[in-house]
Specification:
Jelly Rolls; eight-stranded antiparallel β-sheet; five-stranded antiparallel β-sheet; mainly beta; 25 strands; about 0% helix; 3 domains; about 50% strand
Length: about 425
């Protein structure tokens, strides 16, 4: 969500958060910000093991200055890859601002990928085209440390990589507050503790051979600044993080998690926290949807009326937003990749984003507190009318949403 000129935003100062220890750190170089490229028909290759590829706090690295840009060459991305999947975290920013991640050597888009308040450590999942595995990261209005974890990449469709199947009815599969998903183990996740979550389920429509799942992972009611790491059960825990949070916060982040024998593991670093997981789809070999990146396109902005019938925050109600027609997407579109930011919330609340038409699911995409600016990515199935629905649980909030890609089903024979 790009910003310029005066705004009516109020910033919430949040506690800093300690992240996972650095692993592999790639060199970066400073550059001058230079049109986003696009890719079509791409399938997914999860990283053999998620890995930390940048941490500006590490020795020999440099904090990203105000309005500065760094170039990151992501290791492990082959020539010809169309996009990379990264978890990007802003750590201890000095002011309210945002990070924009885009293909190296292209014009910087007027959108954002990670939105943050002063001193607030914030992570977001980013799927972005990569120029030979290289991306630029720009910090607007604030100096900040940046941490990047590599989750996987997209490549031109092949029979050996994975397609995506969105769930028309996303569902909640874990809630430690009620014991959902962990029978007999109700209660928060403790320090240096983990839980094993069964994600494959015939009733939920997730097959046993799923290679990875798309989850919205939420930490709620934490006692300390900490982070969650999600990874394939039975593998070594990576030195990466998926959700970063401060004490008392409810923080969500979209994650793409590799699956082993239908299971994933979720680990908490310090303190205790309840954990909620909502599932939105899965990757597997077969005739699922392929991914197409687009130059980020704004589809909703309640601050200026884009995608709505007027300039007004969303109250305790819904708004249907056309996405297929705006994108000029083909009729076989199945889901869109969104970056969603909330501004000026008046109450503790959350947004649920879902395909227009079906009943509202018992899931959430972004959690927020009064006065907070925060963002999250979302992969949302598209209704038969080409629209998606935003619902605000409580109070009123302004919403800005950009589409940076979409998924399409195979052409019917």
């Amino acid at each position: 969500m790009g910003r310029s000129g005066p705004t009516r935003w109020r910033l919430l100062i949040a506690a800093g958060v300690v992240l996972a220890a650095a692993a592999v750190v790639a060199p970066v170089r400073w550059s001058v910000s230079a049109h986003a490229t696009s890719s079509t028909g791409s399938t997914y290759v999860p990283a053999a093991a998620p890995a930390r590829v940048l941490d500006t706090r590490a020795a020999g690295q440099t904090r990203l200055p105000v309005d500065g840009t760094l170039t990151l060459q992501v290791p492990g991305v082959p020539v010809g890859a169309t996009a990379v999947v990264l978890n990007v975290t802003a750590v201890a920013p000095t002011a309210g601002g945002f990070l924009t991640v885009y293909p190296h050597g292209t014009s910087r888009p007027s959108t954002s990928n990670v939105d943050f308040s002063p001193n607030q450590t914030t992570a977001n999942l980013v799927m972005v085209p990569a120029a030979n595995g290289s991306v630029d990261i720009f910090s607007a209005h604030s100096s900040t440390d940046v941490v990047v974890d590599f989750e996987g990449y997209y490549e031109p469709a092949t029979g050996s990589s994975d397609t995506f199947t969105p769930l028309q009815t996303p569902g909640r599969i874990l809630d430690t507050r009620s014991g959902l998903g962990i029978p007999g183990a109700k209660g928060p996740l403790g320090p240096n503790s983990q839980l094993v979550l069964q994600v494959s389920s015939p009733s939920a429509g997730i097959p046993d051979n799923a290679a990875a799942v798309v989850l919205n992972l939420t930490a709620t009611g934490p006692t300390d600044a900490s982070y969650l790491t999600a990874y394939a059960t039975g593998t070594t825990r990576p030195a990466t993080s998926n959700v970063n949070f401060g004490p008392g916060q409810s923080v969500a982040n979209l994650t793409v998690v590799p699956v082993s024998h239908g299971q994933i593991t979720i680990w908490n670093n310090v303190g205790t926290t309840d954990v909620v997981a909502d599932i939105f789809g899965y990757y597997t070999q077969g005739a699922g949807s392929t991914f197409t990146t687009v130059t980020p396109m704004r589809v909703l902005n309640t601050l200026d009326g884009t995608g709505t019938n007027g300039v007004a925050p969303l109250g305790e109600s819904t708004v249907n937003v056309p996405v297929a027609s705006v994108l000029g997407a083909p009729p076989n579109i199945t889901a869109v990749l969104l970056h969603v930011a909330v501004v000026n919330p008046t109450a503790d609340s959350f947004l649920t984003i879902y395909p227009s038409g079906p009943a509202q699911p018992d899931t959430s995409n972004i959690n927020f507190s009064p006065g907070q600016i925060i963002s999250n990515s979302a992969i949302v199935p598209v209704g038969s009318d080409g629209k998606i629905t935003f619902w605000n649980h409580h109070g009123a909030v302004d919403i800005v949403a950009d589409v940076s890609g979409y998924f399409t089903a195979p052409p019917s024979s």
